[in-house]
């Protein structure tokens, strides 16, 4: 034997009989079950872009995709996915795409969608399942459920967790402190990752990419990281990883087995999908957006404010604390983070308190969408979002909470005016408390028969035109905003004022 060869402690052909039988049983079971990959990642990282890539790539699989959609507005993005892929007919929420793949958009109940998929008449006419979580979701509960639900487990096998990371924004996302007892979701998503797709290479400097990789490894040192643009990843790296094929020898942090924890996770999942996943600590966020009236052009042709500074700070470590009521899922994430702490040895950064991230959900701020048109201003000069009143955030928004606001109108919008409205909303932030993480919208644009899609991630946004509206399809504009310190009345008032000047009067929902 060459000196450099590492001797094997156990010869490969010496596997004891029992173990071999067990291994064969496992393999047999895997053959008869359908692999499931969970695609997670923070808001706007590129999860849906990855799903679209998978749905259109030449892999020969018939893939069923369960897409997450925000709160009340199921359908904004899936409407585009379906139109791009060709719609063949809907069945119980499931839509068959022309390439043999299927997709279904749900608000939060992934497991119910999974069951409905597995129970479809005609059997399992697909050989792979993808589940895309909400950008604010902790992927732990769904991973846990796939492991612990006996009924499901006999029909599917968890193949892996793919976490998509926005290379431009990961720094601020990871270092946003949360209220005591709540784990930052971006950190959890990394803690559970088997593979990280470090996306948006075209927008990030090499230095930022290296920093991002170091931060990712500080949380999850064993994860594989692949750099991508437009989430275009070699599918061999993310599908059929068999990451969980040897039970009891997980490459993930250990996952809870108790039913009650799965239920707690379900609650958390629903809460997240409803758009009010967590509360955050005061003063959170390192995002900086200088006030500017000049739009710059991002490399992709997107609009962004010229004064935006991304990836401005680098924290050197995370401080894990475990608490008495720690769920094992939270503890698992904490363990991953704590391991990073140990290796980093301290330093200044956000406080992380992972002890009870899955305990009682905070009050849903989504209810804030109940703000009424009565608060709408009457003059065009008030289209702008008002600054925060003296003394900080108004009382109807709890400080630092993440929430969702939905906007809607029936009449077509003027595209240029709409963009000006978005410019203002995202860029003119001086003295306003709102921090908008994400916007998505399906637009009905005046003078166009095509659907338009608004996509915004922090300050960067684009509006792209897509397929034509189908005959009989209700043309309307729907927008969702997710962010922190959102003041529904101010946002709704701004929207109402924008609509007031659109032809056909205004309509506010
Ligand atoms: N420039 C650039 N834009 C990208 C890249 N990947 C995705 N995007 C854009 O980023 C925006 C968000 O992408 P999505 O795939 O919708 O992100 P997501 O993670 O599904 O977002 P949520 O569902 O809101 O959490 C879209 O406008 C994409 O076109 C990339 O590599 N480069």
TrEMBL record:
<feature type="region of interest" description="Disordered">
    <location>
        <begin position="261"/>
        <end position="314"/>
    </location>
</feature>
<dbReference type="Pfam" id="PF02492">
    <property type="entry name" value="cobW"/>
</dbReference>
<keyword id="KW-0547">Nucleotide-binding</keyword>
<dbReference type="GO" id="GO:0016787">
    <property type="term" value="F:hydrolase activity"/>
</dbReference>
<dbReference type="InterPro" id="IPR036627">
    <property type="entry name" value="CobW-likC_sf"/>
</dbReference>
<keyword id="KW-0143">Chaperone</keyword>
<feature type="region of interest" description="Disordered">
    <location>
        <begin position="1"/>
        <end position="31"/>
    </location>
</feature>
<feature type="compositionally biased region" description="Basic and acidic residues">
    <location>
        <begin position="17"/>
        <end position="30"/>
    </location>
</feature>
<protein>
    <recommendedName>
        <fullName>CobW C-terminal domain-containing protein</fullName>
    </recommendedName>
</protein>
<dbReference type="GO" id="GO:0005525">
    <property type="term" value="F:GTP binding"/>
</dbReference>
<dbReference type="Pfam" id="PF07683">
    <property type="entry name" value="CobW_C"/>
</dbReference>
<dbReference type="InterPro" id="IPR003495">
    <property type="entry name" value="CobW/HypB/UreG_nucleotide-bd"/>
</dbReference>
<feature type="compositionally biased region" description="Low complexity">
    <location>
        <begin position="265"/>
        <end position="298"/>
    </location>
</feature>
<keyword id="KW-0378">Hydrolase</keyword>
<feature type="domain" description="CobW C-terminal">
    <location>
        <begin position="402"/>
        <end position="499"/>
    </location>
</feature>
<dbReference type="InterPro" id="IPR051316">
    <property type="entry name" value="Zinc-reg_GTPase_activator"/>
</dbReference>
<comment type="similarity">
    <text>Belongs to the SIMIBI class G3E GTPase family. ZNG1 subfamily.</text>
</comment>
<dbReference type="InterPro" id="IPR011629">
    <property type="entry name" value="CobW-like_C"/>
</dbReference>
<dbReference type="GO" id="GO:0005737">
    <property type="term" value="C:cytoplasm"/>
</dbReference>
<keyword id="KW-0862">Zinc</keyword>
<dbReference type="InterPro" id="IPR027417">
    <property type="entry name" value="P-loop_NTPase"/>
</dbReference>
<keyword id="KW-0342">GTP-binding</keyword>
């Amino acid at each position: 034997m060459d000196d450099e060869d590492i001797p094997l402690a156990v010869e490969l052909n010496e596997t004891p009989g029992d173990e071999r039988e067990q291994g064969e049983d496992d393999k047999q079971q895997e053959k008869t079950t359908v692999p499931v990959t969970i695609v997670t990642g923070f808001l706007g990282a590129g999860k849906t872009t990855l799903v679209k890539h998978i749905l259109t790539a030449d892999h020969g699989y018939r893939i069923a995709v369960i897409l997450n959609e925000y709160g009340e507005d199921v359908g904004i993005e899936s409407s585009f996915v379906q139109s791009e892929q060709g719609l063949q007919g809907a069945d119980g929420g499931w839509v068959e795409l022309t390439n043999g793949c299927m997709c279904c958009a749900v608000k939060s109940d992934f497991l119910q969608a999974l069951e409905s998929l597995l129970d479809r008449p005609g059997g399992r006419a697909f050989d792979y399942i993808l589940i895309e979580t909400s950008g604010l979701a902790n992927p732990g509960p769904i991973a846990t459920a796939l492991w612990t639900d006996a009924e499901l487990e006999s029909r599917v096998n968890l193949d892996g967790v793919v976490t998509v990371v926005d290379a431009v924004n990961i720094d601020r996302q990871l270092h946003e402190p949360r209220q005591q007892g709540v784990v930052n979701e971006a950190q959890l998503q990394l803690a559970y990752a088997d593979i990280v797709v470090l996306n948006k290479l075209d927008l990030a400097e090499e230095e930022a990419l290296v920093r991002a990789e170091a931060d990712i490894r500080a949380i999850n040192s064993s994860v594989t990281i692949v750099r991508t643009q437009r989430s275009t990843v070699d599918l061999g790296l993310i599908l059929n990883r068999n990451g969980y094929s040897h039970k009891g020898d997980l490459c993930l942090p250990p996952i809870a087995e108790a039913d009650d924890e799965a239920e707690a996770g379900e609650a958390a999942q629903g809460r997240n999908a409803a758009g009010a996943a967590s509360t955050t600590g005061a003063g959170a966020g390192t995002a900086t957006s200088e006030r500017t009236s000049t739009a710059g052009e991002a490399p992709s042709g997107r609009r962004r404010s010229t004064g935006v500074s991304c990836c401005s700070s680098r924290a050197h470590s995370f401080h894990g604390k475990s608490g008495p009521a720690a769920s094992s899922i939270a503890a698992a994430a904490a363990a991953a983070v704590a391991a990073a702490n140990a290796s980093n040895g301290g330093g200044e950064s956000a406080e992380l308190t992972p002890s009870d991230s899955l305990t009682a959900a905070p009050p849903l701020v989504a209810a804030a969408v109940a703000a009424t048109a009565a608060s709408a201003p009457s003059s065009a000069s008030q289209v702008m979002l008002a600054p925060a009143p003296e003394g900080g955030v108004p009382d109807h928004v709890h400080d630092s909470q993440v929430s969702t606001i939905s906007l809607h109108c029936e009449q077509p919008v003027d595209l240029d005016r709409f963009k000006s409205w978005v410019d203002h909303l995202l860029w003119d932030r001086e003295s306003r408390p709102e921090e908008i993480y994400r916007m998505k919208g399906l637009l009905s644009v005046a003078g166009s028969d095509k659907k338009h899609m608004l996509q915004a991630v922090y300050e960067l946004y684009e509006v792209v035109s897509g397929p034509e509206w189908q005959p009989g399809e209700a043309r309307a504009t729907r927008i969702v905003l997710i962010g922190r310190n959102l003041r529904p009345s101010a946002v709704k008032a701004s929207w109402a004022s924008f609509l007031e000047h659109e032809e056909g009067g205004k309509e506010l929902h």
